[in-house]
């Protein structure tokens, strides 16, 4: 008996198999090409973009020095672990792995929605270096200002001051429990140099070469204890963060470092003032200072953070200090040099006053100005000192510590070695040595006749 085969049926099955095979091959090739292009794109971004890849934002900073040493000690028995309680705990490992895998900070619920809700995480700063007191990566807080129809900043953050803001001078209170800035033991400033309609820049000791410039892009940022009020974002035209900048200048000069300080109030001095242009205004201030004094090398834009007391205060050796953040702008193509400069101060704080520094954070144009005038000098940095609830005593303590370490760094910089030497006064009949940027030149000063 002969068996017949349905040739048409087998032909259809064969054609179906060919179609499926071709489809599978095309899908395989397409998938391979997709991942190749994706990989090349990642390599290109790594080469072209000066800021960290978005997938790695915050991951490297989660590993503090002590945490990293403890990790290495697991595989290297001869490597000593850090003193005290180990940082490589289950909670630390879990937090790190979750953030690495999902880019979600378990301690910040907002990051859970950030990937789905456009704009919710646009203000998140990038942690570059975290500190002992900020292992979870709590970011600096900035309150945005609202704009009126004309584009002028309104409200408390750098715009026109609220109606309940006082306009007096620095508070001088009695013992009734109200706040007052601690009186400085330094010599008082010359009359008419820092208040009212007086010049907005003070030079300090005229015998010191000015190499440090301190200014404030948001000069009206203030503090609740200083204003004797309760606000989430206190501002005032006179009693504000400029007092901290002035203290830093005075303490630097006590340590032999010439410093200039600008307390310019942009809101009252700039026609058509717009809060969102604050860094444009302050950039002109810095450029004018650099033009007037070409020896300026170090620039500090001092701000106040908007975190509350719990996050902005630390106790060291029984004393309360205002904590600080260092902010680096990633739109500056050479931001790594500025980050290195900020890290010199950060590491000294970590070593001697652990917990005062909250770390170094980077920001792009999505999180703020993104440049912060830092392209003008590799020794330029934004420092946010304290929060809205810190007292002047706490702020001044931190300013004094910053002055110690900034003075040490400035003196060790090769180009800044002569800054702590007074400018010589010429005398008749004697050779006078003039120090210019590390070089000594002599000229003879004689008498007429």
From TrEMBL:
It comes from the Bacteria. InterPro entries: Spore_II_P (IPR010897). Residues 135-207, 414-449 are annotated as: Disordered. Signal peptide: none annotated. The chain crosses the membrane at residues 21-44. It holds the Pfam family SpoIIP. The keyword Membrane applies. Residues 438-449 have a biased composition (Polar residues). Keywords: Membrane, Transmembrane, Transmembrane helix. SUPFAM superfamilies: Zn-dependent exopeptidases. NCBIfam families: spore_II_P (TIGR02867). This is Stage II sporulation protein P.
């Amino acid at each position: 008996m002969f068996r017949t085969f349905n040739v048409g049926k087998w032909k259809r099955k064969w054609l179906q198999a060919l179609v499926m095979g071709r489809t599978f091959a095309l899908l395989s090739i397409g998938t391979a090409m997709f991942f190749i292009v994706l990989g090349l794109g990642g390599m290109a971004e790594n080469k072209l973009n000066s800021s960290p890849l978005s997938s790695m934002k915050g991951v490297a900073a989660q590993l503090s020095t002590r945490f990293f040493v403890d990790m290495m000690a697991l595989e290297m028995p001869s490597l000593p672990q850090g003193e005290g309680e180990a940082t490589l705990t289950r909670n630390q490992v879990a937090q790190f792995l979750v953030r690495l895998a999902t880019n979600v900070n378990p301690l910040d619920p907002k990051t859970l929605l950030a990937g789905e809700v456009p704009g919710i995480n646009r203000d998140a700063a990038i942690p570059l270096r975290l500190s002992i007191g900020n292992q979870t990566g709590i970011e600096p807080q900035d309150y945005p200002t609202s704009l009126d129809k004309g584009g002028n900043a309104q409200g408390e953050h750098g715009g026109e001051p609220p109606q309940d803001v006082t306009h007096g001078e620095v508070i001088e209170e009695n013992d009734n429990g109200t706040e007052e800035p601690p009186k400085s033991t330094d010599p008082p400033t010359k009359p008419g140099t820092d208040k009212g309609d007086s010049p907005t820049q003070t030079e300090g000791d005229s015998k010191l070469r000015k190499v440090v410039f301190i200014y404030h892009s948001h000069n009206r940022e203030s503090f609740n204890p200083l204003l004797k009020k309760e606000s989430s974002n206190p501002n005032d035209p006179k009693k504000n963060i400029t007092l901290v900048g002035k203290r830093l200048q005075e303490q630097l000069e006590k340590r032999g470092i010439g410093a200039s300080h600008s307390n310019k109030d942009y809101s009252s001095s700039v026609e058509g003032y717009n809060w969102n242009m604050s860094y444009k205004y302050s950039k002109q201030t810095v450029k004018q200072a650099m033009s007037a004094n070409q020896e300026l090398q170090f620039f500090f834009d001092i701000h106040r953070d908007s975190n509350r007391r719990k996050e902005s205060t630390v106790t060291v050796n029984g004393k309360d200090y205002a904590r600080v953040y260092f902010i680096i702008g990633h739109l500056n193509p050479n931001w790594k040099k500025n980050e290195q400069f900020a890290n010199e101060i950060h590491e000294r704080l970590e070593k001697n006053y652990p917990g005062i520094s909250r770390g170094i954070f980077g920001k792009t144009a999505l999180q703020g100005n993104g440049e912060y005038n830092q392209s003008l000098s590799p020794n330029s940095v934004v420092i946010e000192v304290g929060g809205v609830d810190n007292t002047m005593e706490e702020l001044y303590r931190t300013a004094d510590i910053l002055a110690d370490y900034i003075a040490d760094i400035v003196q060790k910089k090769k180009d800044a070695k002569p800054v702590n030497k007074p400018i010589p006064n010429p005398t008749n009949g004697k050779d006078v040595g003039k120090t210019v940027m590390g070089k000594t030149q002599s000229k003879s000063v004689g008498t007429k006749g």
